[in-house]
Input
Amino acid sequence: MSFDPEAVRSFEHARWQQAASAYESSFAMATTPFIGALLDAACIATGTQMLDLACGPGVVAAQAHARGAVVRALDFSPAMLAIAAARGIATDEGDAEALPYASASFDSVVSNFGVHHVPRPERALSEAHRVLRDGGRVAFSFWADNTDNIAWKLVFDAVARCGDPAASDAPPPGGGFRGPAQCAEALCAAGFADCTTELVHATWCHADARALVRALQAGTARMAAMIDSQQPAVVSAIIADIDANAARYRTVDGIALPIAAVIATGMKG
Output
């Protein structure tokens, strides 16, 4: 199947519209621990004019606002934007590949696990460069390799052993990042200087493997599509496989799974 940007956009839009209502009680528990490092990388402080790109329900924007930043938040999902707007965040519905802002409008642009969901991430980064003022900073987060992301490794390994990793109806993505070096290279290609990456670690806790799988089904796009495409008996086998292999991460409250993200940043100068 060849790459079709509109098919990617349509798939992602439908999935995030569906996930909006459950996102904060499911997958946000994995993404929220990285917000502080993301805002630090973008130098968010009092008075910073910041754009939250692919903002989802506005969790990042709200934390930036608490730091004293002047925030606008953009997403293509009206359902997500409605939640962000209810927080009092100034929101805009739009396309990360064609931002509806004048050049040199912001001091900082941040995106928490959003850039790789855009059909053409390089266009989103180029647009971030355009709307930044000279000296402004961009920062985005991206999931680290599965060797650092035990939650992801457990799921992907279980699907490979018990199910069909290729069963999903998701269209081929336009691109992503295979590691820290590629994140930095993408920023450099978009015109940024002083491009750096940082590996940040966190823990994602669940009662058991079934709760992990349910969180992924409720609050993600491609991973949810992969799980949803398996037969019910296969999903049960996947959960059992995860439970067996998560034994070393078991606590009195459930399972505490290591996760990690790359925070990539660059400067327009």
